[in-house]
From TrEMBL:
InterPro entries: Bact_HTH_transcr_reg, Chorismate_lyase_/UTRA_dom_sf, Tscrpt_reg_HTH_GntR, UTRA, WH-like_DNA-bd_sf, WH_DNA-bd_sf. The keyword Transcription applies. Keywords: DNA-binding, Transcription, Transcription regulation. It holds the Pfam family UTRA. It comes from Intrasporangium calvum. Residues 5-73 form the HTH gntR-type domain. This is GntR family transcriptional regulator.
Length: 286
């Protein structure tokens, strides 16, 4: 017979999902005890049990005079505009380590861009923060790289730094793609999380300044420990020269863009009026 979940566990579980799903974020105030009592039709003691469980797990904390708030937690931030696993650490005492789990020459599967069907150097590495795994990286490289980039040289090191310092070929760019996937049993074991846990998969290829391929990679990140940052700087609205000239304006910034649009509308209206006059004249002649 299945065990019936106690009410305080259900309430704690619901709030945990809301926190992990970012509906409630660090610093946000949780619903009051009275509101939770009403929402779940339970006693205040049951609600307090649920909040105590969340507090014990570090998800919430008591705020003097406010109630329970979502606690902040260490998070690693990866800047997608940079190459390599460049992480901005949220805490000063965070230590990142890199293990080399596999290093061998193998036939790359056809699904691997550039290397499919050929022998290549295959790397599998694991990155951890203060001993807690947060990323697994699988990389395929040209087989000749094995002569220069050794297994030991990659322990607690950056592969891209090795490209530059050992090969003299710095990463200049390449394709990047991000998608959400569920952890397989193997990835779950490596990342110390459950099978099916959401992971952020970053995959792509890196090239040097001449456009020659350096690597094809897949990196699985724990979604509860790593966030991807995308910088989107402000820019002026695009201008359409012929519209600006016909409207007699010089678009400059936002107001200039609005003037250009007004000029475009006026120009289109004028053109439509001319077309209508031509059609009327054609009807009269017919």
């Amino acid at each position: 017979m299945a065990r019936r979940m106690p009410l305080h566990e259900k309430i704690a579980g619901d709030l945990r999902h809301r926190i992990e799903g970012r509906e409630l974020q660090a610093g946000d105030l949780l619903p009051s005890e009275a509101d939770l009592c009403t929402e779940y039709s339970v006693s205040r003691s049951t609600v307090r049990q649920a909040l105590a469980a969340l507090e014990a797990s570090g998800l919430v904390r008591k705020a003097q005079g406010r109630g329970s708030v979502v606690a902040s937690h260490p998070e690693l931030h990866r800047d997608l505009a940079r190459t390599g696993l460049s992480l901005h650490l949220g805490e000063e005492n965070t230590q990142v380590s890199t293990e080399v789990l596999e290093y061998d020459l193998a036939m790359a599967p056809d699904s691997v861009p550039f290397f499919g069907g050929t022998e290549a150097l295959r790397l599998v590495r694991r990155r951890s923060s203060n001993g807690e795994p947060f990323a697994v990286i699988r990389t395929w490289l040209p087989r000749d790289f094995a002569k220069l980039i050794t297994r030991d040289s990659l322990v607690d090191a950056s592969l891209h730094e090795r490209f530059a310092s050992i090969l003299g070929r710095a990463v200049a760019g390449g394709r990047r793609q991000v998608r959400a996937v569920g952890a397989t049993a193997q990835l779950g074991a490596l990342l110390e999380t459950q099978e099916g846990t959401p992971l952020l998969l970053l995959e792509g290829e890196s090239v040097d300044r001449e456009g020659s391929i350096l690597e094809s990679f897949q990196t699985w990140h724990r979604g509860d420990l790593v966030a991807f940052d995308v910088d989107n700087p402000p820019s002026a609205l695009p201008t359409v020269p012929w519209l600006g000239e016909r409207a007699g304006v010089r678009p400059d910034g936002v107001m200039g863009g609005i003037d250009a649009l007004e000029g475009a509308v006026s120009s289109i209206e004028t053109g439509l009026a001319a077309v209508q006059d031509a059609l009327q004249a054609l009807r009269r002649n017919v």
